[in-house]
Amino acid sequence: MWRLFKTIVSRDLLLAFRRRAEILMTLFFFVVVISLFPLGIGTDKQILLRIAPGVAWVAALLASMLLLERLFAADYLDGTLEQMLLTPQPLSVVVMAKVCAHWLLTGLPLVLISPLVALQYRLGDEQMISMMLSLLLGTPALSMIGAIGAALTLGLRGGGILLSLLILPLYIPALIYGAGAITASVVANAPEQAYYMLLGAFTVLSMALGPWAASAALRLALE
Amino acid sequence: MWRLFKTIVSRDLLLAFRRRAEILMTLFFFVVVISLFPLGIGTDKQILLRIAPGVAWVAALLASMLLLERLFAADYLDGTLEQMLLTPQPLSVVVMAKVCAHWLLTGLPLVLISPLVALQYRLGDEQMISMMLSLLLGTPALSMIGAIGAALTLGLRGGGILLSLLILPLYIPALIYGAGAITASVVANAPEQAYYMLLGAFTVLSMALGPWAASAALRLALE
Amino acid sequence: MVPWFAVPAILLTIGGLYWGFFQTPNVLSDQKQYYRIIFVHVPAAWMSMWLYVVIAGWSLVGLVFNTRLSFMMAASTAPTGAIFTFLALWTGAFWGKTSWGTWWDWDPRMTSELILLFLYIGYMALHSAIDDVRRADRASAVLAMVGLFAVPIIYYSVNCPDPNQCTALHQRSSMEYMESNILWSMLTMTLAFWLYGFAVILKRVRSIILEREKYTEWVNELPEIRSQQG
Amino acid sequence: MADMTDAVLQAEGLTCIRGDRCLFSGLSVSVRSGELLYLQGANGVGKTTLLRALCGLFHPDEGQISWNGRPIKAIGEEFFSRLLYIGHQSAIKLEFTPLENLRISCALDGLYPEDGVLWHVLERAGLRGFEDLPARMLSQGQKKRVGLARLFVNDALLWVLDEPFNGLDAGAVEMLQEVISRHVAKRGMVILTTHQEVPLASDGLRCLRLGE
Amino acid sequence: MADMTDAVLQAEGLTCIRGDRCLFSGLSVSVRSGELLYLQGANGVGKTTLLRALCGLFHPDEGQISWNGRPIKAIGEEFFSRLLYIGHQSAIKLEFTPLENLRISCALDGLYPEDGVLWHVLERAGLRGFEDLPARMLSQGQKKRVGLARLFVNDALLWVLDEPFNGLDAGAVEMLQEVISRHVAKRGMVILTTHQEVPLASDGLRCLRLGE
Ligand code: HEM
Ligand SMILES: Nc1ncnc2c1ncn2[C@@H]1O[C@H](COP(=O)(O)OP(=O)(O)OP(=O)(O)O)[C@@H](O)[C@H]1O
Ligand SMILES: Nc1ncnc2c1ncn2[C@@H]1O[C@H](COP(=O)(O)OP(=O)(O)OP(=O)(O)O)[C@@H](O)[C@H]1O
Ligand SMILES: [Mg+2]
Ligand SMILES: [Mg+2]
Fold first, then answer.
1. Looking at the CA of D44, which ligand is closest?
2. What is the distance between the alpha carbons of residues C139 and C76, in angstroms, rounded to a whole number?
3. What is the pTM for the complete model shown?
4. Between the CA of residue D179 and those of B175, D117, D125, E62, what are the distances in Å?
């Protein structure tokens, strides 16, 4: 079981590394997105400070969305997913593995690159820390929820779409608390713990329910 | 020729409506990005006014990117693209048709929904007008340039990120002048004509060169 | 042929750096010694822009006359260009840190260079993402052509975001009132970078050719290949 | 169709190199109207590659492909208008019904038949009753049939079919055979490849075996 | 493999309704080890549906499928560990080399053979020299072979093969046939469907013709 988990994770990572440029690409993609805002908004230090949290989290959302269809679609089209349903292990292991890989490909790079955001947006050190922390806590939830949405929209039965529309708004709490935490540290040096608690709780919750929902959706999509 | 154009456009539109999730995804993403910033920044009117143009335009860039990957991918996988290469009509007609469809699916909805942004950011009417106008002028260029990127990255793993890495820098002029136009109307009631001129020129230029580049890239991708 | 460029490149770099760092009077005392970075900074910046034009040129030749060599040249030029771009940004940032007290400022020139870096990276990423050589060459050539049209527009838009009063263009170009021997040492560095560029590019294109032609017989005639096989 | 005059597709000295391996070199072949060229050869020997090259979808590393003596690269669209290529992939959209799929692929060929014709064609293709289901709900062979239905509408001079019999049941195979031989009989030209030994009963039959 | 003891897959009173069309109703069939069940029938008659139902991938509207007397839904994973299903789609990733594809599909079956074995298997599948190319660069039949290579590694008791011969050349078809009959000979069980008439020379052969 643990072995299957590892196999699938490493497989998905390998898929990503197959284009050796890809991991770097993720990083540079963030830099590009981040650099766009000042071009559009202007480079007044105050403004930059204010928008930094939003920018970071929009980048996170975009990243996990951009890579979401890769999550199951490819395996669905070429029939690998059928095979995964037939594995002797429970399906939720597969789901967790794929989510984990997805996070390693999207969430983690963002966490790692976020100091650059802080630099470009003139954030102080402890603000940089809080940005990294909030991203670290929140992005797994994005991947997990995204997985549910991806599984639901997979077969594209009418119901799936409607449900996935119910799913997408679930992103919002993560965004609010994540951005909120950074803002708290940027603007009013308000206590941030509360934000982190909520963010963490949200992630844990999604991790608890996500795999079950996602694998149910997968079975539905495949019959 | 004109008839082929119409057929392809209507076909792509029909396809998109069959899988509704896509259109909704674009709009949803746009709205989320837009509403995220007030959440993160707080609703100080001055700041909102300042960042409104930039946020709107960056959101537009990113949102129109979401569907780009699928512009040719589906047709590529199931072999339709091969058939399109073999049509008696020049390939650039096909490209233009697909770009047009893509704009109707991404650019237009954004233009229509932008008044919502204006509302959220407390913009006045004439500022709202200028926002819609700038989006109307600029988004076609986004679709066209995006098509080039999509054709170039066709069938490549992780196309989504690579694609955005390629085209986002090319988007910058549209971003600067689009946002600039709105800012001009928001902050200093400076004359905006110049912006619109440049924006339009940019779009026209991309329309003139884009189809050539895109169809060249397509032929490459298919052999 | 490579050494013909490599050796003078090294010599000139050393010479230029020495000249720049120790032979130039301490003008711009407000910036203390930091300003000497300019001897790396500016030439690097120049090279970075010039090399992109070179790439586009080779790509055009390749697309029109369908010559494989020119594609190889373009492909092998890109990394050097990226390196120079990064060098310019990095030294610039360093300079900014010391003289302006900030790593990064959204000054147009810096921004446009940053965008140029993105373009380079995009070019290289595309080329490395396609494993069919033929398609890789032509696809990235098309990209370079598009870039050729885009770059001037982007530069214009970045340098003059407000078309109504377009003052930002060519700001802060203090070339004219610059000490002649500072200028000269800078030019030396530029020349040095030129030669370095030639050397590296030729080296790279050589290896690329060898890799792609490894099935043709003339390659196997080459001494070092023989020695490897034998 | 308009003119079934004598046309000839000619390939001289074709050399195709995929990756590191040379599939074929110096291959010359010509097809004239009223002939059926039957490509044979093991898996991976280069049949599909050759077919796509003959359609102008793939540029051979060396050699010249000409239609009525003029290189197909030069006459591009004119050649395409005489060509009908059906490849491995069915080129149908799973979201569309067979009817819509057929209509679109016709439009790509520059044909705009009215629905009556399309319904009739789909029935001949053995899809009666399935015209209005999304293709996602069709079986493998039924999808294949949707792709092949174009043969009933399109009267291009040159048909290039890559393993058209895959996944078809006995009845469909038979039907397809007679469609093909009828096309050849009225001086069309057909190039196809398949691994099943099907009796291609037509006089103009010529075989080309790759990979020897 | 561990035990080739007598096992039996039994389906009673199966009824499948896809869309609004009843494919089959009250269908009962059973396969025991040492037998080969050959599904026949026209396109769209429900062969694939039946196969998927027998694998537990598709839940029939009525009826009961049991493995050694216990319903497969109940024993889920235990049944899957005895099952090998190869469907229409090849289930291979175009970015991966045949070697990696094979390794992954083995891992999904819970097998972790070392590379030596995999190389050997691929050679038997006729892919020598292609082990390290991305599967995107393989021909249609070669991709199919990669998918089928699992048969050499996996010694599950029950094989379910949906049109395994599609797109294979004569040699490959022959090879596949003998692999199948060998499996049956050593008291494995096979359920397959195909449209090509291939001589399935094995004593335990039983035919089931759908759609009459
Ligand atoms: C991180 C980015 C950069 C920083 C912080 C930076 C900073 C500086 C500073 C402090 C100077 C000293 C000259 C003065 O203060 O007037 C300077 C000069 C110069 N920089 Fe940069 N720079 C950066 C990027 C670039 C780029 C990308 C270019 C090329 C387009 C560039 C071109 C020049 C040139 C030509 C000079 C010498 C002429 C002059 O003194 O104005 N710089 N830079
Ligand atoms: N995109 C590609 N890049 C590199 N090599 C390729 C590519 N496509 C095919 N090949 C190689 O070309 C050879 C011939 O492929 P092709 O598809 O023409 O074979 P085929 O004769 O059609 O085989 P099949 O009967 O299985 O369809 C194969 O050996 C394959 O390795
Ligand atoms: N996802 C689906 N939803 C609804 N109906 C379906 C679906 N898939 C298949 N069907 C219907 O079930 C019937 C049987 O499909 P199936 O794939 O089992 O046929 P088959 O016997 O495998 O045909 P073939 O020989 O072409 O593979 C078809 O008529 C098809 O219309
Ligand atoms: Mg083939
Ligand atoms: Mg079937």
1. 2
2. 15
3. 0.80
4. 56, 17, 11, 41
Rounded CA Rg of chain E: 17
Backbone φ and ψ for D188, nearest 5 degrees, come out as -85, 175
Residue at token pair 């992954």:
E104
Binned at pLDDT 50, 70 and 90, residue C17 comes out as low
Helices (H) and strands (E) in chain E, counts: 7, 9
Of C38, E138, B151, give the one whose Cα is nearest residue D21. Answer: E138
Task: Give pLDDT tens digits for D51-84.
Answer: 999 988 888 888 899 998 889 888 878 888 888 9
Q: Indicate the Cα dihedral angle B3, B5, B10, B13, nearest 10°.
A: 180
In this predicted model, which residue has the larger pLDDT, A7 or C124?
C124
Ligand approaching nearest to the C-alpha of D210: 2
Summarize pLDDT for A39-68 with one digit per residue, the tens: 777 767 777 777 888 888 888 887 777 777
End-to-end CA, chain D: 38
Question: CB-CB: which of A25, A31, A43 is closest to C125?
Answer: A25
For chain E, the first-to-last Cα distance in angstroms comes to 38
Give the integer Cα–Cα distance in Å for D7 and D31. Answer: 9
Cα-atom radius of gyration of chain D, to the nearest Å? Answer: 17
* C104 contacts chain A (CB < 8 A): yes
| Ligand 2 atom 19, closest CA | D44
D43 neighbors E168 (Cβ within 8 angstroms): yes
* D106-153: pLDDT as tens digits: 888 888 888 899 999 999 998 888 888 888 888 989 999 999 998 998
Q: Which two tokens stand for residue D178?
A: 């007679």
Of A8, A80, A84, the CB nearest to E93: A80
- CA-CA-CA-CA dihedral for B205, B208, B213, B218, to nearest 10: 130
Nearest to C82 by CA among C58, C59, C52: C52
Residue type at position E87: G
Res. E8: pLDDT tops 80: yes
Classify burial at D47, counting beta carbons within 10 Å of its beta carbon; exposed 0-12, middle 13-18, buried 19 or more. buried
**Protein residue with its CA nearest to atom 27 in ligand 2:** E140
User: Which residue bears the tokens 């766009």?
Assistant: A36
Q: What does the alpha-carbon distance between residue A154 and residue D162 come to, in Å, rounded to a whole number?
A: 30
Q: Are A34 and A117 in contact (CB under 8 A)?
A: yes
- What token pair was written down for D17? 């190199």
> How far apart are the C-alpha atoms of C118 and A186, rounded to whole Å?
29
Q: How confident is the model at residue C230 (pLDDT cuts 50, 70, 90)?
A: very low
How many angstroms separate the Cα of A209 from the Cα of each of A95, A144, A171, A215? 12, 9, 15, 11
Q: How far apart are CA D49 and CA B223, in angstroms?
A: 9
In the structure encoding, which two tokens stand for residue C9, read together?
Answer: 């490149």
- Cβ contact A42–B33 (<8 Å): no
Strands E8-18, E21-32: parallel, antiparallel or unpaired by DSSP? antiparallel
Check residue B160 and report its DSSP letter: H
> How many beta-carbon contacts under 8 Å exist across A and B?
142
Chain E residue with minimum CA distance to A94 = E108
Torsion sign (Cα): C194, C200, C202, C205: negative
Question: What is the layout of strands, in order, in the sheet containing D8-18?
Answer: D21-32, D8-18, D62-67, D70-71
Q: Does B21 touch chain A (CB under 8 A)?
A: yes
- Minimum CA distance residue for ligand 2 atom 30: E138
Asked if D93's CB is within 8 angstroms of B15's CB, the reply is: yes
What is the separation of C-alpha B87 from the centre of its chain, rounded to a whole number of angstroms?
27
Q: What is residue C224's predicted lDDT score, i.e. its pLDDT?
A: 55
Chain C's closest residue to A28, CA to CA, is C118
* Angstrom distances, CA of residue B199 to CA of B134, C157, E12, E179: 8, 10, 70, 66
Q: Which residues contact E60 (CB under 8 A, 6 or more apart)?
A: E14, E15, E16, E53
